[in-house]
Amino acid sequence: MLAILLAAQLAATPTPVKPQADEIVLVEPLPPGTISVTASREPVQRILSGTANSFIDNVLIDRLNLSQVKDYLTLVPSVAVAQTGPMGAQTQVRIRGAEANHTMTFIDGIDMTDPASSGEFRYETLLTAGVESIEVLRGPQSALWGSEAIGGVINITTTNPLGSRQGLFGEAEGGSLGTARLGLGATVSNSSGAGLSVQGAWLSSRGYNIAPGPGDRDGYDNLTLHAKGGVAIASNLTATLVLRHVSSNSKFDDFDYDAGVPLDAPLSTRTRQWAARGQIDLFLADRRWTHSLSVTHSSAANSNRDGGAFVNRSNGAREQYRYQSSFRFDTGALEHRVTAAVEHQDERFASIDADPDAFSNQRRSRAQTSAVGEYRLELADRLAAGIAVRRDWNNRFADATTARANASLKLAADLRLHGSWGSGIADPTFYDLYGFFPGFFIGNPNLKPERSTGWDVGLRWGNLTRYIDVTWYRARLNNEIISTFDPETFLSGVANASGRSRRQGIEVEGQIAIGSGLSLRGSYAWLDASQQQVAGGALVREVRRPRHSGSISTVYNHEHFQLAASAAITGARGDTDFARFVPVTLPAYTLVTLSGAWHITDQIDLTARIENALDARQVDVFAYRGPGLTAHGGIRFRL
Fold it and tell me: pLDDT tens, 112-148?
């Protein structure tokens, strides 16, 4: 139906509509990066949100030309990325020292966390093809978006159907480790507010053997298909649709617990992800009263194999139904906005083993209904504040209430004070509750959800393009789900810690334009994250969280070429030696990327890129080294 309407509208010319949807932005009334669609239930100016946030725009994404989104996240303060070996290996993202499954990830409004595994989003499967921008909100956001938004929210937006990139575009690239990627996309729109963007990307890498000595290479393949469209059905009624499919295959090795190193083995994981989102928006009372109705489906299937033989598979699916209404009104110089939303979510999980009689074979489900209320006020650009409350009714866990408050105050012409407070919640994953692998891991169905509260306060000087921002934050986590090990049975499991974990830190981020075509941005973060497993017991530093981290990146544009460089600095971190169960220290490293493009014509570029230009030894997980220096070259076009 939407495709028929889209075709009809591409030939018609009604009045363009200003978007009010909370995730799909079809028209940009302000420059990119000005509006945040996740810092509030309705779009809000980033500088007025009060929430600590970072924005990576299409300029930096295009100029660095990296193949995976995870590499851009290393440039954001307080975001730690841990990759277990070569491209395609498990990649975890932690914000402000929180757990990897404490980050909620949206792609064009779709919650992409994986219910079929650990409740994390599989960042190793996310290619940059078609990605227009990356926004990172730091701090608890559960009152707005629900479970798992304890550390923060990452919002990824793909090519805007009504944006400046119209026509056909694509790329082809080859490089070290037998890596190749191809991309092809097209965008079509008209002045009536109807548009369609489609793109496909393929990436393949032979990789390298993560185990010491001779053996097979641990390679990776990925095929991503994505489409986004919107249509103005009437002057006050719009419809949007997003479709996404990812198919990937990653090879990996076993682990030798006697020697404490990876053990060469022909193991692989095949992942399939499907997602769809449809939304209708109605605008009344001169667009001051908005209504939004959406339906979202996402599912994932993860299949493990040994030498081609099926071992086990986990399937997960999520359906979410949402209705939201927002009313905006003025009293004198104050602008008010009241938003109410009702959501219902169904999740399903299935575990299938090669042995039909295995105890790990199971099917589970759970459901949750939520109500959200938010109030915001703004006094021009001088003062903005908001408060939100959420109530979750869950059929598996105790009902929960979360809250959030934030404010932004203009102190002087270019100086702002911002701050936020929030509570967060993370439900145990299906794997935590019901996982069963004889001789290895047993789930715990008695787990309680993790709960967190945190606050931050900061000063920002400048504007959106030239600024420096310093933020101080603190957070605590109760009921943290921790790993357990029984030395008598050698079985692992999980339990809620009786102690309280603490996180605190400082974030510094800045950006400046230097002369014509040259811009520079940088960040630094200090983190103190400690875990207390038993109440009254010792505080132990959390693993794989660097105390010091930072980044610097620069972009230079010229009439005939463009250059970009970045350095992502990861400080020393603690980890655990899996063989001896003793703490170890992972050394600091810096990943330098050098990238350039030569404009052969106005429509064709030759590209070149060097990753890890200093050939640093990258170890994010004990005994698993990352790739060394690699070089890549290719061509891209825009028609």
Answer: 998 887 789 999 999 999 999 999 999 999 999 999 9
In whole angstroms, give the CA distance from residue 284 to residue 324: 14
Regarding beta strands 467-478 and 436-437, do their DSSP bridges make them parallel or antiparallel, or are they unpaired?
Answer: unpaired
**What is the pLDDT, as a whole number, of residue 21?**
37
Reduce the DSSP state of residue 457 to 3 states and report it. strand
Radius of gyration of the chain (CA): 24
List, in order, residues 6 or more apart from 54 with CB less than 8 Å away. 76, 77, 135, 136, 138, 509, 523
List the chain domain ranges.
2-638
Q: DSSP assignment, residue 127?
A: B
For residue 469, is it left (φ>0), alpha (ψ between -120 and 50) or beta?
beta
CA-based nearest residue to 171, from 163, 161, 181: 181
For 14, 190, 197, 548, the CA distances from 193, given in Å and listed in that order, are: 8, 6, 13, 46
End-to-end CA distance of the chain: 29
pLDDT surpasses 90 at 7: no
Which distant-in-sequence residues (6+ apart) come within 8 Å of 23 by Cβ? 37, 106, 108, 109, 155, 277, 279
List 624's β-bridge partners, or say none.
621
Helix (H) or strand (E) holding 60: helix 58-64
Nearest by Cα to 311 from 355, 349, 273: 355
CB neighbour burial string for 13-50, b if at least 16 within 10 angstroms, e if fewer: eeebbebbbbbbbbbbeeebbebbbbbbbbbbbbbbbb
Contact criterion met (CB below 8 Å) for 583 and 45: no
- CATH topology for the 2-638 domain: Maltoporin; Chain A (2.40.170)
